[in-house]
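Please, structure for the following, as tokens.
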Amino acid sequence: MSKKFLRPPSLRPVATHYCSGCGHGILHRLVAEVIDELGLREKAIGVAPVGCAVVAYDYWDFDVCEAAHGRALAVATGIKRCRPENFVFTYQGDGDLVSIGMAETFHTANRGENLTCIFVNNACYGMTGGQMAPTTLIGQITVTTPQGRSSEAKEGWPIKFSEILAGLSGVNFAARSAVSSPKEIIKTRAYMKKAFSNQLENKGFSIVEVLSPCPTVWQKRPIDAMKWIDEEMVKTFPLGVIKDR
């Protein structure tokens, strides 16, 4: 019997450093699958974040560079303007993209740079110890909100950044998906392909936000972390296409 489910060529055969149940492994594979399907392996340049995916270049078998914390889209802008023939994308977490990198993200999108951004939202700072992030849910416990995140009284509300970006004229495509079930993983792949294809067609800025589990910081079993996405995260961050111009 021949194998049907194979490792995509753009995904290296290496052991993972991610925690059990982390969503980054799923997303790394999806990125590699779409890169291969669109024939982009020899022209792709990824920009890795500071965060749990800081060593994404260890897993992808195509060109990837590193950016300072939050500056991935600024670096990507420079690369794309210098090498417009290349396919350039960023892969960033919520702390990297929405906190320290909010200005870079906002202005890159507002300029309508012909780039693609994969935005991994796990509602916490995973690598640095589990602090509250801009996307942490109301009531969610983190090491800096041990009683749960409050709203206007202290920490403010979770930032729905994809909706904010969708209001900018420079943004062509914005969507939110998850990796909490096979159905949502298939949708995530389709959104990625759409966002990648938009860049190839010179349509401007595209962003795909993905709700992803962090069982370690959330202190949940992997299966319970997936359920928490479906039962709690989607209430604050509803899934679907936000903008498709």
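Residues 44 and 87 are 5 Å apart (CA to CA). The two ends are 44 Å apart (CA to CA).
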